[in-house]
Design a protein that fits this description.
It is a single chain. The chain is mainly alpha-helical and 218 residues long. It has one domain. 70% of the residues lie in helices and 0% in strands. α2 packs antiparallel against α4 and α5 packs across α6. The two termini are 20 Å apart. Bound molecules: protoporphyrin IX containing FE. Protoporphyrin IX containing FE (HEM) binds next to α2, α4, α6 and α9.
């Protein structure tokens, strides 16, 4: 199968997988099958999907480095944008159903509940990453794009702490996701990536379509 067809097949699979939680939740809302507390189910599934997709997004570069298969980088933008889609849905459910569109309640909740404070911080870090995920912004920002998009590490770390503080009792899954993040960050360290080419060494002229990892995008 050609690279183009392989990437298309992977992207199709990604869309189906990424949209499945939303389809399941929508069906659950329509059929009234989201359990005794549908708002809590909506909040939890959107939150967990957002965090999981962020972690999957962070596996793309190590996978590319390990396999040398560059086209996999084309999956990173849709993955990141789906993570953002679920984070926006997660935030909206809280703002609509918990805060009932009331900014005063919202500010109070952010100030009072530390897991909301750190959740909001994670969300605020994700916004510029989503906005600047286009080719236009990659060109406009040049090397600054690479620095900005390292914010994905911070957003994911904040979201893991948010999850850890939410669950209080059974912290096994937040700890596991935290461990996954730690491994994904560790293998980015130069010590684990011998012969890594930095975006600087890619050479003049091709810089504007080079993403954070020094790879041509699109
Ligand atoms: C915009 C700011 C955010 C607010 C107001 C918020 C609010 C909440 C609330 C109210 C809960 C449920 C607490 C409970 O069940 O008692 C929750 C859980 C969660 N949130 Fe957030 N959150 C925010 C941002 C995020 C972001 C950016 C992510 C991930 C990228 C995230 C991931 C999660 C996860 C994984 C859970 C736990 C799900 C579970 O219990 O299975 N949240 N959040």
């Amino acid at each position: 199968m050609s690279t183009k067809k392989t990437v298309l097949a992977l992207k199709t699979g990604l869309w189906v997988a990424a949209l499945s939680p939303a389809a399941w939740l929508t069906r659950g809302v329509v059929q009234g099958e989201l359990g005794p507390n549908p708002i809590e189910t909506l909040t939890r599934v959107t939150g967990l999907t957002a965090l999981t997709l962020l972690l999957v997004t962070l596996t793309v570069t190590p996978f590319r480095r390990a396999t040398g298969w560059n086209p996999v980088i084309k999956l990173r933008r849709p993955l990141g944008l789906f993570a953002f889609f679920y984070a926006v849905s997660h935030f909206s459910i809280w703002f609509v159903f918990d805060m009932v569109f009331n900014l005063g309640y919202m500010i109070e909740d952010i100030a009072e509940r530390k897991y909301i404070t750190i959740g909001m911080a994670a969300f605020l870090v994700l916004i510029p990453l989503a906005v600047t995920s286009t080719r236009g912004w990659i060109r406009r920002l040049g090397r600054k794009w690479a620095t900005l998009h390292k914010g994905a590490y911070l957003a994911t770390a904040l979201a893991v702490v948010h999850y850890f503080w939410v669950v209080k009792a059974d912290t096994r899954l937040p700890l596991l996701l935290g461990l996954c993040l730690a491994v994904l960050l560790m293998i980015r360290l130069p010590a684990f990536a011998p012969g890594r080419r930095s975006s600087r060494s890619v050479g003049k002229g091709v810089e504007d379509d080079v993403d954070a990892e020094g790879v041509r995008v699109g």
